[in-house]
Each structure stands twice: as structure tokens, then as C-alpha cells.
């Protein structure tokens, strides 16, 4: 059995399609299909079942999957053993909610790239939970601790959120001295039916029942606040990037959340992945602390 064929098998299993696997591997879908057919012929077994949703694993494919992943891990360990403990190289794909991806990871990954010039870092910002079993990312930052799956979960750091608005908005509207003063002000928040994690339901904790402007992206919300469209709950670490945005009612409305670093359980055996996870964890902790320290009391 050829490792390259197993690599293609894993890509199709994770992408659920020939075209998706081809994009990951940098080859065309027809080549992927031929290689899968060749592997099935060599094994004398049907590995995939074509459905309207794509390519699902057949029972024989399900049985092959853990063995193929074990080979993948062994190949990675062999490469690490030959390359030694020096520079980190290869590709690292990090999945993160867009607040972290926009306001923290660019600085953290810039420093990581400077320290390891041959490391290729990809930041995937999506407002949803990543599927590490399908290798949508090598590791992911999450806003809540997962309760299921073969995962390694590490608490990164706590962070603060507050109600905020641009100073232009605050000058043009009635003063806000207590929570009751929020009535009549325009609120900005998440689209209610697109909140993918209960930890993101910020406005529920303010007592506000309706938002005039909503988005599934925290970065879009922050830009709306920066343009004077209203008030919203924002990450303290994002405020230094938005001159003129000020926190309000800090004594009455203050939220605390946590970031978690999530990895596939099999990656615990990889010295490279352990080093990358530790570097990313240290970088995120330091960046949150640095940015929150810049806020005006």
C-alpha cells in the first residue's frame, strides 16, 4: 500500500469530495478520483459511497481511517526526527472566531513567522466551530470548551468585554449613566439565529432585548460602532485598534470570557505540534494582556 494513496484517501475523507481533496492537495479532482479507484482496486474494497452531499466513507473506509491516520502521524514523526529541534517548518492552519483572528492572531503570527521563516501560517477566520477531525485546521481557538471528541483542550486566557460606542455617537445622543439609560439608544450585536456558541450571546447579559444593527461577524459589529452607528459589546483587546471608541457603564456591564486552544488528540505525539501550540498559547496570552493594558481606565 502506497503512502501517497493513503494521503489522498485521507484528504477525500476529510473534504467529503474529490474537488475539495484536490484543492487541499494541489491536484485536479479527476486525478484524485483515479487514485482513489486505484487504491480501492489494490485493496479489493469500496472505500467511499457517493451521496448527494458528496463522498462519505463506506464501512471499509471507516475501518481503514484510523490506520491511515496512524501512518500519517508516523510519517510526521519521522520527518521531525530527521529535521531536528531547530526551526519550525511546514504549514500551520489555525482556525479562530473572527475577533481573535482579526485583532490577536496577525500580531502573534507575525512574531512566530519572524522566529521561524520557513513556517507557512494560515489563519482561517470563520464564525463557527471548526471540525478538527476533518482537519479543517491543525488547531483552533474557541470561545468555549468542547465536551466531546478526541481532542486536546488547553485554556489559553481570560479576556474582558464591555459596552462601547464611538465618542461621536456619545456626544450626539443622551448621556448614559445607568443601565436604564440604554432605552432609546441604537444597539449593535449578533444576528440571533446565527449565534453558534452561547458564550457569544453578549446582549442577553445587558438586558437589551433588540438590536437595530446585527451581523454574524464581531469585526463588522466593531466597524459599525466605530462609524457611530450605536452601542455594542466589544472585546477590550479590540478597542486600541479603533480610535474614538470608548467603554461605557463599565461598573454595571462587564463580561469575562475565555479562549481555548483545541487540537486533535493524535497530535500529542508530535513534538512539532506541541511546540507550535505552546508558542501560539504564549503569544495569545501576551497579546491579550498587552492590548487590554492600553485601555484608558
TrEMBL record:
HTH lysR-type domain: residues covered: 1-58
Single GO term (MF): DNA binding
Name of this chain's protein: LysR family transcriptional regulator
Key words of the record: DNA-binding, Transcription, Transcription regulation
Family: Belongs to the LysR transcriptional regulatory family.
InterPro entries, per the entry: LTTR, LysR_HTH_N, LysR_subst-bd, WH-like_DNA-bd_sf, WH_DNA-bd_sf
Domain of life: Bacteria
SUPFAM superfamilies: Periplasmic binding protein-like II, Winged helix' DNA-binding domain
Organism: Paracoccus thiocyanatus
